[in-house]
Amino acid sequence: MLGVLVNTATVIIGSAIGLLFKKGISKKINDAVMIAIGACTLFIGISGSLNGQNVLITIISMVLGAIVGTVIDIDKQINSLGDFLKKKFSKTCGTFTEGFVTGCLIFCVGAMTITGSIDSGITGDNSTIFAKSLLDLISSMMLSSALGIGVMFASIFVFVFQGALVLLAQYIAPFLGEAVINELTCVGSIIIILLGLNIIGIGKFKVANFLPAIVFAPFVYYLYQFIISLI
Fold it and tell me: Quick count: other Cβ atoms within 10 Å of Cβ 41?
């Protein structure tokens, strides 16, 4: 769990540094920073989406994920949690919930989160999570300077989500080969693209409602392989 603790700490530290700079940043600069963050988020999403090898798996996973996520309304649940934390800890911060949700998605949706957590849980190798921690340190600085303290509270989600992956690593690793992770990364990256569009202001998508697509991706991959083997 050392890697998870380090990653959680870097998000908190990075957010704290970003909040210090936020006080002296004008709205004009803040808007420009948001566009820059959105553009970088789109770049990360587009780059990751190229890992996919089968567009059919991506489409099916996204459609199933969208249906389940919308029925459950995950976006509403996460936003409700953000609103609760806002009322408890940051009543004056209007962008708290946006920062919390954005941070949760950026810090936890990606191949480094999955592979790093599995390596840490099975072999004790934290090198991937440490590398991710450095990236999250920089990302949290930028995000918190624009979206406020909600980004810092996303560290709670980082700890819980990555910690769960580390603890369950020995059970899920056999099902997450390189090909599966590539498809999973592709689906997750498309969700990141939607998040980037939200940050820039082009759309107002309920991005969290698409998160089940990440869970569906491995199942769809194996189902597709099974069908192909029968043909």
Answer: 24
The pLDDT-based confidence of 92 (bands split at 50, 70, 90) is low
User: Per the structure, how many domains does the chain have?
Assistant: 1
Are the CB atoms for 208 and 105 separated by under 8 Å? yes
Residue 231 domain flag: no
The answer as to whether 18 is a domain residue is: yes
- Per-state percent for the chain, helix, strand, coil, to nearest 5: 85, 0, 15
Rounded-to-integer distance, Cα 67 and Cα 200, Å: 25
Cα–Cα dist 58/2, whole Å: 33
Q: What percent of the chain has pLDDT over 90?
A: 31
Q: What is the pLDDT of residue 55?
A: 93
Residue 171 lies in domain: 2-226
Residue 222 lies in a domain: yes
Question: What is this structure's pTM?
Answer: 0.78
Q: Which amino acid, 138? A: I
Q: How far is 15 from 142, CA to CA, in rounded Å?
A: 8
Helical spans, DSSP H, in 23-126: 27-49, 55-72, 74-89, 96-108, 111-122
Is residue 27 assigned to a domain? yes
pLDDT in tens, 201-224: 888 888 889 989 988 999 999 999
Looking at the chain, the number of H-run helices and the number of E-run strands are 10, 0
Q: What 8-state DSSP symbol labels residue 149?
A: T
Is the predicted pLDDT of residue 37 greater than 70, yes or no?
Answer: yes
For 177-184, what is the mean pLDDT? 88
